Amino acid sequence: MASNDKTPAAPRYAAGAAYFDMGEHTLRVPMTLHAENRQRLLKRLVKHNPAPRSVVLLQGGEDTTRYSADADIIFRQRV
Predict the structure, then answer these.
(1) CA 1/CA 10 separation, integer angstroms
(2) Over 70: is that where the pLDDT of 60 sits?
(3) Which end of the chain offers a freer environment for a tag, N or C, measured as fewer CB atoms within 10 Å?
C-alpha cells in the first residue's frame, strides 16, 4: 500500500499464512486472529440467547483532533 493511500491492502502470504499489514515497518496481523476473535464473540453472544437471524454492529475507534488544529492525535486501540 502506498504511504498516502488509506485503503486496506489485500492480504499477503508468507510461509503459507495470510496476514494484513499497512506497509513497511508495520506489524503483521495474521488473518487467523480475525477468525479467533469472531469465534470468541460468537461464544459470548450465545450465552445471551440472541434472537434468530440477529445482527451484530461493531463500532471502530474514532479519530480526534487537538483543539481546533488539523493535527490528529495518534489512534491507540484500547483493550
Answers:
(1) 9
(2) yes
(3) C
User: Which tens digits make up the pLDDT trace of 15-48?
Assistant: 677 888 887 888 888 888 888 988 998 899 889 8
Of 56, 29, 27, which is closest to residue 40 (Cα–Cα)?
56
- Can you list the positions of beta strands (E) in the chain? 12-14, 17-20, 29-30
DSSP codes of every residue in 12-65? EEETTEEEE--STTS--EEHHHHHHHHHHHHHHHHTT-PPTT-----------B
pTM, two decimals, is 0.50
Take residue 16 and report the three cell numbers written for it.
503459507
